[in-house]
Amino acid sequence: MNTALDRDELLAPPGAGAAAGAPAASFKDHVETVLASVFGMIFLGLALVVTVETLSRKLFNVSLQGADELGGYALAVGSTLAFSLALMGRAHIRVDVFHELLPRRVQAFMNWFAALSLAAFGVFIAWVAFKVIGDTLQYRSTAQTPWATPLIIPQSVWYAGLVIFALVAGGYALRATGLLFAGRIATLNTDFHPRSAKEELKEELDDLAQRQAAEGGQP
């Protein structure tokens, strides 16, 4: 391991490393924004369908007979997108009772192993889902609903979400591996360690300040 690199990272002025990693951070923010937007549009669309269904039943005694089916598809697809969003936001739950008590190099190894394990899990579930897609195509399965939706349609979108998660997790694992073998322990621990209570509190306070500023700027 390269101790000099760690010392340079620790002594560097705030923002010095941010400029070097700006392109990577910009790409990450772009991907995160796109996934979050798709996630939001899915559930906004579902809310619209449920609203129309409720009004049509109440006012005209007519049912679309598909709101519950669409709700299931939205939950399945939204969950796969949430996997990637949680990973990029470091929101996946990790038991870190003793993590902060360990030496920095042991922390780095555990953070690297966590990233590698999650990538392996992402690839595994994508592989299993691919077999499900194959069975659906072979049997031409349809939903047991009034719409009789060909299941290959929602399952393809669901599978795309799982592939995205596998790619994101794989990219994070590759980056963690590169940082580990380059001896950049400080960067590895900063980018991949579990979020602390102080970090979560800071995010909440920053979000509160932004909302208060937005409300104060309104006429």
Strand content: under 5%
Q: Helix count?
A: 8
Q: Low-confidence runs (pLDDT<50, min 5 residues)? A: 1-20
Shape: flat
Percent range of helical residues: over 70%
Number of strands: 0
What would you note in describing this structure?
Helices cover 78% and strands 0% of the residues. The termini are far apart. It is an all-alpha fold. The chain contains eight helices and no strands. The chain has helices spanning 3-11, 16-20, 22-60, 67-88, 104-139, 152-181, 185-192, 197-217.
What's the arrangement of secondary structure elements?
Layout: H1 3-11, H2 16-20, H3 22-60, H4 67-88, H5 104-139, H6 152-181, H7 185-192, H8 197-217
Helix pairs in contact: 3-4, 4-6, 5-6, 5-7
Q: Which tags fit this structure?
A:
single chain; 219 residues; mainly alpha; 78% helix; flat
